[in-house]
Specification:
The protein is α/β, with parallel strands linked by helices. 50% of the residues are buried. The protein is built from 15 helices and 17 strands. Helices cover 38% and strands 23% of the residues. The strands form 3 sheets. Strands 1, 2, 3, 4, 5, 14, 15, 16 and 17 form a 9-stranded mixed β-sheet that branches. It has 2 domains: 111 residues, Urease, subunit C, domain 1 (Roll); 289 residues, Alpha-Beta Barrel (TIM Barrel). α2 crosses α15. Bound molecules: zinc ion (ZN). The site of zinc ion (ZN) has 6 residues, from loops. Zinc ion binds next to loops.
């Protein structure tokens, strides 16, 4: 078989390896969909593949592993700006859930997903973990676009456009898990919506299946203080305690939000190896609370980053989310050292990969991993002069400075332009949905 070689020559390589090495004077050799090796620039011409390789010089650019958005509802981009400045439960029950029951269908899911995927690729995200209806259609769309995705197999107690009761949700979840097995860029996770929308028995089954199939459980947990207080009133237990009794607290769990945690719970989460998906902008916008990231990181908890859906953020810009996460951790802990620039990048890359069970495939620039890479052009006014590329990326760069994106070795963005996606068509479809929804 004929191999395809690309040699990417950035100014800096932010490897995000275990020593967090930042290299200068090196190139990345991509063989097909893999990072073959990191090669000193003065040795490139000696490579056997040199004559047939595509050489991609990236002066002024930092090359990073592609960003991993650990929690989103991509298709909800079509609801962006529809209901704002409201607290979580009012936003959900008066606006989002009714709109979903009126409008969500396979076509909505796919058109919304394409809009979100384009926005994410444009801003440097190469892998996303989603939770929404019609995951099978979403998976096919993700594979067709070429964006690495973990689709959530949604489970609820109550009827929706996707299923009528927990039994049907679970049945469909397992069917989709099987159906998408052959798609190389897509995998699945159970996605029970939240402790307050799903009862014990389906959660017990999810714990069992997740263990058996070794796939993640992706769930909103302790999003607000009100959620925890209400559960205590109804059941006498805090939701995390209930999930613990149902065998869900382990390294397969991606607990999203976690704004309400006491000291005992932080220790328990650390001990059980639970992953925490922190969504600072969604939490801030909905006034939901603040995840104690500094304390979680201190105890070694794997904290990753998510944007949540665009209807509560309102963008899917993970580079911006990194900065918000770093600022918020410092501001809320009163410690300027909390969540430093390196930790912020780890949260958006290798920690996300780890939470999704994909740390051997993506999340850092190392030989043998998939070539999911992004370049950030640091030559703009706002990132000059340049003492430290890592600090510039987290504290000063804007997502418009993402110049190149590769996913699984395929270029998706080159010199700031999409290689495959037609943005005019995507924008026209979004506008036509908005017209229907508004009328
Ligand atoms: Zn969410």
């Amino acid at each position: 078989m004929q191999h395809r070689y690309q040699i990417v020559q950035p100014e800096w390589i932010v490897t995000v390896n275990s020593d967090f090495e930042v290299l200068r004077g090196f190139a990345v050799l991509i063989e097909d969909n893999l990072i073959h090796s990191l090669v000193p620039n003065d040795e490139i011409a000696e490579l056997d593949c040199y004559a047939q390789a595509e050489i991609i010089p990236l002066p002024n650019c930092a090359l990073l592993p592609g960003l991993v958005n650990s929690h989103t509802h991509a298709s909800m981009s079509l609801f962006r700006g529809m209901a704002d400045d409201l607290p979580l439960m009012e936003w959900l029950t008066d606006h989002i859930w009714p709109a979903e029951s009126n409008w969500v269908c396979p076509e909505f899911t796919v058109d919304g997903f394409r809009l979100a995927a384009a926005e994410m690729i444009r801003s440097g995200t190469t892998c996303l973990s989603d939770m929404y209806y019609f995951p099978g259609e979403m998976a096919a769309c993700a594979q067709q676009i070429g964006i690495r995705s973990v689709v959530g197999l949604i489970v609820l107690d109550f009827p929706s456009v996707w299923a009528q009761d927990a039994t049907e949700y679970l049945h469909k979840a397992l069917a989709v898990h099987d159906q998408i097995r052959e798609l190389p860029l897509v995998s699945s996770a159970f996605a029970p919506h939240a402790p307050y929308t799903i009862s014990d028995e389906p959660l017990r089954q999810i714990a069992m299946y997740s263990n058996e199939l070794d796939i993640p459980v992706h769930m909103h947990v302790h999003e607000t203080a009100a959620e925890v207080a209400e559960a205590q009133q109804k059941t006498g237990q805090r939701p995390l305690q209930r999930l613990d009794q149902l065998n869900l607290l382990n390294s397969n769990l991606i607990a999203v939000h976690m704004t309400e945690l006491d000291e005992f719970e932080i220790e328990r989460v650390a001990e059980a190896g639970v992953n925490v998906a922190h969504c600072p902008e969604s939490n801030l916008k909905l006034g939901s609370g603040i995840c104690p990231v500094a304390s979680l990181l201190e105890l070694g908890v794997n904290v990753c980053l998510g944007t949540d859906g665009a209807a509560s953020n309102n963008d899917l810009d993970l580079l911006g989310e990194m900065r918000t996460a770093a600022m918020l951790a410092k501001g809320s802990s009163g410690n300027a050292r909390a969540c430093d620039a390196r930790q912020a990048i780890e949260m958006a890359t290798i920690n996300g990969a780890r939470a999704l069970g994909m740390a051997d495939l993506i999340g850092s620039i190392e030989s043998g991993k998939r070539a999911d890479l992004i370049a950030v052009d640091l030559s703009d006014l706002n990132t000059q002069p340049l003492y430290d590329p890592v600090a510039q990326i987290v504290y000063a760069a804007a997502s418009r400075q993402v110049s190149h994106v590769w996913i699984d070795g395929t270029a998706q963005l080159k010199d700031f332009e999409f290689c495959h996606l037609d943005t005019n068509e995507i924008i026209a479809k979004a506008a036509s949905w908005a017209q229907k929804i508004r009328s």
